[in-house]
Predict the structure.
Amino acid sequence: MDATTQNKNERLNLRLKSSAKSLIARAASFEDRTVSHFILTSALEQAEETDQEHEIITLNAKNSRMFF
């Protein structure tokens, strides 16, 4: 089961401009999803990408020799 289909017992609230809400609702409707599902899946995709980017250590050649 992924995070969008597991039992849900947490809540997340946010405030946004009317124009942002309208844009999100429009995009969600294009994909035939609810606004909640659209926001959740979009946020999870971005969170996973960001998490992976910060888990990778990039070393230049000099620092790599020092590290290893």
About this structure: The radius of gyration is 18 Å.
